[in-house]
Specification:
The protein has 876 residues and is an alpha+beta fold. α12 (367-394) runs antiparallel to α17 (507-539).
């Protein structure tokens, strides 16, 4: 057995034992160990000495802690006042980053909180239909009207079933509303057929009326508070009053309920809800499985196994849909389509951020935007932290003697670390206050930019703690490396001047500058490509002429006078052609699809858009005839004629289509012409087959192709003609090109947001580069002066001062290009029609980054090169 006591136990004792007791106690223990060499006994005796009276030092009094922190912040404020430029840049960078983060955070918070306000949100689902058609997968939410009733009948796990249709397909659901005791119509958009079950599923909040049976009866309607106030004011009770839609006096709707306006963060936005029991639905749709126009929502019972319930939904296909298809002698393609139907339940709070490309016609957010904006906000803040780290370490020589002296007089490294972290926290808290003020001032502009009404949730209990915690986290991230770097200086070396060149130890700072400019270059590349894709979308040849096409709404109220109206418009000098059709070749236009079969070719059928138009439609929209001819109103047989697009012609795989007879849901038609393909969906979608045939339905939209360049005069002429036939209804119009551009508003907003916040990121990076270059030039002041005395030209001095930064930008460019190309190429994959990423994007970006860097450092460089050398050399 060893005669030496355990070294670990002795070290432990000396670590905690008071110095004045150490020698005596250790001697006694060693003597006892020689008498009884038991290691266990020795450990026991060591721990027995670890008592409060024998501890090395006592805990500081709370007042001492307070004084210590006061001293930390006092030193911090002195440093801030002493170095105004660096302090301003650090605080400014932090403040800009925090303001940007706050603005983008409330946007993200708003997007992520869509549809999270329902009472039973976790049990509310939307029914989604998945199927295969001709080898293509499709996901949608529109089912036949009886689908919802079948759900209630077959599945007891469903506590409630609701459904609605907001497709303006039914004359009475489109847009012109008036009180029965008034003559003037008002154009309205948010109208839908709704069953009572939907009000129950969503627990819609009623202000007036019976919430449990408001829509049980035909010819009833529920309106929102804002609509009630609009039509009846504050004093008149709307319950029991009636409304007329589209001037149809034979159809009067009794108001049976007033509900609170749907929250702005709801994907469902209705102002008028007509009972789905209404008998105006054409073609017996209420009892037929023919038409898929209804979206279904369910509330399941607590504890329901959702996966098992989804599996059970296959019974609907077997019980109802397949027998219906067989009954109407559906072809093989349609039968295979029906057999492929599968159903899923989508949580209601996942509808808005539609990540599964479910076709539903509902306004959506984009989860990619959330990730991108969150990343940009984080990067801006991170760039500000890098500025702080760079400037703190670059100025290490200025703080080296302070650290050396403090260590010499007894300060521990932990105390010095706390000092520098306290300074960092102080910077971040001041920046937080300024950032909040900036964000609050900018929020009206930001709301206008994103097209929303966002506000900071100051009333929420968590907002202030989260902001303070974020400020402390930012301060810690920015300050932890400089704190440990500066506190590691050795007193002897520092006081001998051994750290005087510490500012030139640039490896870490260079890496951080490279990171800053790598991010900046990637953002510049992204901004250029997004802008080019947006301009491509707005200026692409769409296959039709959208210029000077005036879209008139609400013409269904003219009834049989609509043809008279069209003829009078044609007689105007400012009008080239006039067409009546509810179908517009733009992304948010009305859509109807179905199968079209070729007579004499069993099994040959194509699923296509099926648009009911008039004989002037092709000419008014400017479609280009590829083969055959246009509709001719003078040819009587054209009432059963059809024109298709090139894509549909290719899918028929028949060369001689002109003159062929085809059949769809509306009857049998003869193909008389083929138009060149035209875009009618977003450019993210491939052009789909389209068929157009003549209808006698009264349209809700009349399109007018203006021939005059004097658009105001043309509008006045059209308005006078409208007023003559419809004196009680204000004209409602828009232009097709404006409507087309409106469909890309989200993309334009997205591009503008990226531009603005990319600029902020670059500004933050440049602030750091500006301060860093100023400090580097300050450190090399004597060197520059000596070179000037020896005759170095100004150009050489400028090159000397800028070449290091230019090299860092070049390295950043090399690193950024492949990442930027990959990310933007991935983003463009969502577009079926897109730009190519060409080499000039990277040339422009590289030149821009270099110019930004040179402009940032040029002021300090020129100032240094023009300075009188005597200023720096007079002390030598």
């Amino acid at each position: 057995m060893s005669n030496t006591p355990p070294k670990f136990a002795t070290r432990l004792l000396l670590k905690f034992l008071r110095d004045d007791l150490a020698e005596e106690v250790v001697g006694d223990l060693e003597e006892k160990f020689r008498e009884n060499p038991s290691r266990l006994t020795y450990y026991y005796q060591v721990f027995n000495y670890l008592r409060p009276f024998a501890m090395r030092k006592k805990r500081l009094h709370p007042a001492t802690h307070i004084d210590m922190f006061k001293n930390y912040f006092k030193i911090g404020f002195r440093q801030m006042a002493k170095n105004k430029m660096y302090s301003t840049i650090n605080i400014g960078g932090f403040a800009v980053g925090i303001a940007a983060c706050l603005l983008l955070a409330i946007y993200i918070y708003g997007e992520l909180n869509y549809d999270k306000f329902y009472v039973n949100q976790d049990r509310i689902y939307r029914v989604v239909e998945h199927h295969e058609y001709d080898g293509q997968h499709y996901s949608g939410v529109h089912m036949a009207h009886p689908f919802g009733d079948a759900l209630k009948e077959l599945y007891p796990d469903l506590e409630q079933v609701g459904y609605y249709n907001d497709n303006p397909n039914f004359g009475a659901a489109t847009n012109e509303v008036r009180r029965t005791d008034r003559l003037n119509n008002t154009h309205e958009d948010k109208i839908a057929f709704v069953n009572q079950g939907l009000l129950d599923v969503l627990d819609v909040q009623f202000v007036k009326g019976n919430p449990h049976k408001a829509l049980n009866d035909r010819n009833t309607i529920v309106i929102t508070e804002s609509i009630a106030k609009k039509y009846f004011g504050d004093d008149e009770d709307p319950i029991g009053k009636s409304l007329i839609l589209n001037d149809n006096k034979s159809k009067v709707y009794a108001i049976t309920g007033v509900v609170k306006d749907f929250p702005s963060n709801s994907h469902i936005q209705f102002d008028f809800m007509i009972s789905s029991e209404d008998d105006i639905l054409f073609g017996g749709e209420r009892t037929s499985w023919c038409c898929n126009n209804w979206m279904n929502y369910v509330r399941v019972k607590p504890g329901t196994d959702i996966a098992a319930l989804e599996k059970k939904f296959e019974r609907i296909t077997e019980t109802y849909m397949l027998p219906q298809a067989l009954k109407r002698n559906a072809g093989k393609l349609e039968l295979d389509w029906v057999k492929s139907f599968r159903y899923a339940l989508q949580p209601v709070d996942e509808v808005y951020l539609n990540v599964d490309e479910i076709h539903d016609g509902v306004a959506h957010g984009d989860i990619r935007f959330i990730w991108l904006f969150g990343s940009i906000a984080t990067l801006i803040l991170f760039l500000a932290c890098i500025n702080f780290i760079n400037l703190s370490t670059a100025r290490s020589a200025n703080r080296a003697k302070e650290v050396g002296i403090r260590k010499t007089i007894g300060s521990l490294r932990a105390s010095i670390v706390r000092q520098f972290l306290a300074e960092s926290f102080m910077f971040s808290i001041i920046a937080l206050v300024i950032g909040i003020v900036l964000a609050q001032l900018m929020i009206p502009i930001f709301n206008n930019l994103v097209g929303k009404s966002l506000s900071f949730p100051w009333t929420q209990w968590w907002i202030i703690p989260c902001l303070l915690a974020s400020a402390l986290l930012i301060g810690f991230i920015a300050g932890v490396y400089p704190a440990f770097y500066l506190s590691a200086f050795r007193p002897v070396k520092v006081l001998k001047g051994g750290v005087s060149t510490g500012a030139r130890n640039t490896r870490v700072r260079s890496a951080l500058v490279i990171f800053q400019f790598t991010i900046s270059i990637m953002l510049i590349v992204g901004t250029i490509i997004i802008e080019r894709q947006m301009q491509y979308a707005l200026n692409k040849d769409l296959g039709f002429d959208r210029n000077n096409v005036m879209i008139l709404h609400g013409t269904i109220t003219l009834g049989n006078q609509v043809n008279t109206f069209k003829e009078e418009l044609k007689n105007l000098a400012d009008v080239r052609s006039v067409s009546g059709s509810n179908y517009l070749p733009i992304n948010d236009g009305k859509r109807d699809g179905g199968s079209t079969k070729v007579e004499g070719a069993p099994g040959l059928e194509v699923n296509s858009q099926q648009w009911e138009v008039d004989t002037e439609y092709i000419r008014t929209m400017g479609f280009r005839i590829f083969a055959g001819r246009d509709f001719d109103p003078k040819i009587a047989s054209d009432s059963s004629a059809m024109i298709i697009n090139q894509t549909m012609a290719k899918q028929f795989t028949i060369d001689d289509l002109i003159g062929r007879k085809v059949t769809n849901y509306a009857g049998t038609f003869t193909i008389i012409g083929i138009v060149e393909d035209f875009h009618f969906d977003a450019l993210t979608q491939q052009i789909a087959p389209v068929s157009m045939f003549v209808t006698k339905r009264i349209p809700n939209i009349v399109s007018v192709k203006l021939s005059s360049n004097d658009i105001p005069a043309a509008i006045e002429s059209v308005s006078r003609t409208w007023q003559k036939l419809s004196p009680n209804q204000p004209i409602s119009y828009e232009f097709l090109d404006d409507r087309y551009e409106h469909t890309y508003n989200d993309v334009k907003r997205f591009g503008l947001i990226v531009k603005i916040f990319t600029s902020l990121a670059i500004i933050v990076a440049c602030l750091g580069l500006f301060a860093l270059s100023a400090f580097m030039i300050e450190q090399r002041g004597k060197e520059i002066s000596i070179r000037m005395v020896l005759g170095a030209p100004v150009a050489n001095i400028l090159r000397l001062l800028s070449q290091n930064f230019v090299m860092l930008v070049a390295i950043s460019f090399v690193i950024a290009v492949p990442f930027a190309w990959y990310l933007m190429d991935t983003w463009l994959q969502d577009y079926a029609y897109k730009i190519d990423i060409t080499w000039d994007v990277f040339v422009i970006t590289g030149m821009s980054a270099l110019a930004i860097a040179l402009l940032t450092i040029s002021y300090q460089s020129v100032k240094a090169s023009l300075m009188n050398p005597v200023v720096n050399l007079k002390s030598e």
